[in-house]
Amino acid sequence: MKLKDSQTIFGALADPTRFRILSLLAEGELCVCDVMSVLKEPQSKVSRHLAYLRRAKLVEARKEGLWMYYRLTKPSTKAFRAIFEALNCCRSDVKELKKDLSEFRKNKSSLVSCCK
Predict the structure, then answer these.
(1) Cβ contact 45:7 at 8 Å
(2) Which pLDDT value is given to residue 86?
(3) DSSP secondary structure letters along 54-69
(4) Which of 6, 39, 54, 68 places its Cα 20 to 30 Å from the Cα of 111?
(5) What pTM did the predictor assign?
């Protein structure tokens, strides 16, 4: 991994919204509308942050019909694995991440409703 790549990754993690999105995606692949629903943020903001995470190679996307689905990338280096492990460790300690996770799990059965 080059220093510039590390800088891009840590820049992606520095934003609270992107950090929250990564935490949600640790649960598995999600549609943009699911992320919007849990974070209570507009589509434009969520999509902009997801695009940033894609450029940082932290998430991958696939299109199905009109909808975009995102998932975490598979860590390709030790540093990448350590970053994802650290994210998973703090999910239950950070108030906002814990709240997002609770909201996601509570409403999991009704999510993806915009995509059906």
Answers:
(1) no
(2) 86
(3) HHTTSEEEEEETTEEE
(4) 54
(5) 0.87
